[in-house]
Amino acid sequence: MNTTASPLPHPLLQIQDLGFAYPGQPVLAAGWNAAIGPGVTLLHGDTGTGKSALLQAIAGALPATGRLTAAGARLDSAPEAYRQNVFFVDPATERFNDVTPRECTATLNKGNPHFSEEKWQALVEGFALGQHLDKKMFMLSTGSKRKVWMAAGLASGRPLLLLDEPTAGLDAASIRCLWGALAGFAGQSAQAVIVASAARIDTVPLAATIDLPLH
C-alpha cells in the first residue's frame, strides 16, 4: 500500500485490522490498517484487485473482520449511526429502478440533516439531469444513473463518501463537473471521499493514494 497522507490524530475513517476475502478467492485484505482523513483519497488498482469489494466492505455492505469507525461511529457496535455517516451506492444495484431521481435522492438522504438542496440543484444542472428528474430510474442510461447517485452523494454532507469508478459512462461535461465538485473537498476538515479507480487522477488535489493489491 502506498499512502501520501501524514498521520492523522482524528481521521474520519479508521480502519483497524480489516480482513476480507470472497469465499474460495484470494484474500483481498488481511490485517489492514489505515486512517483516512479529509479530502479525496484515491483507491487505485487494476480490474480485479478488489477495489469495489473493499468499498462495499467499508460501506458495511459486505461482511469483513476487524473494526471500522466513521466519524466516531463503529460499524460493529453502532451500525445505524455508522451507516448514517457513510454515503455509498453500489453501481450495480437495481433497488431504485422503479422510482424517479428525485425520489431516489430523497431516500438516500432520508434523516440526513447535512444534505444541501442548493448543492444538489447545482450538481443536477452540472450533470444535465434536469430532463430526467421525473423519469423512472430504469429508463436512464448507466451514466445518468451514476450521475443521480453522485449528485445525491456529493450534496449529502455525510462525513464519508465512497465513489466506485465514478467516471464510467459519463460524458466529458459531466466528468468536468465531477472533478470540480471533488476539488471542493480539498482543504476542508469535515468530509472524506474515497474514489476507487483503475486510472490515476491528476485533475483533483489528492489527500492520499492507496494502491492495490494491499499485500
Task: Please tell me about this protein's structure.
The N and C termini lie close together (7 Å). α3 (101-108) packs parallel to α5 (142-154). Strands 6-7-8-3-9 form a five-stranded parallel beta sheet, sandwiched between helices. Strands 2-1-4-5 form a four-stranded antiparallel beta sheet. It is an alpha/beta fold. The protein has six helices and nine strands, in the order βββαββαβαααβαββ.
Work out the strand percent: 15-25%
Shape: globular
End-to-end distance? 7 Å
Largest sheet: 5 strands, parallel
Brief summary of the model shown:
This protein is of the alpha/beta class.
How would the blueprint of this fold be written?
Layout: E1 13-20, E2 29-36, E3 39-44, H1 51-59, E4 65-70, E5 73-74, H2 79-84, E6 86-87, H3 101-108, H4 117-126, H5 142-154, E7 160-164, H6 172-183, E8 192-197, E9 208-211
Parallel strand pairs: 3-8, 3-9, 6-7, 7-8
Antiparallel strand pairs: 1-2, 1-4, 4-5
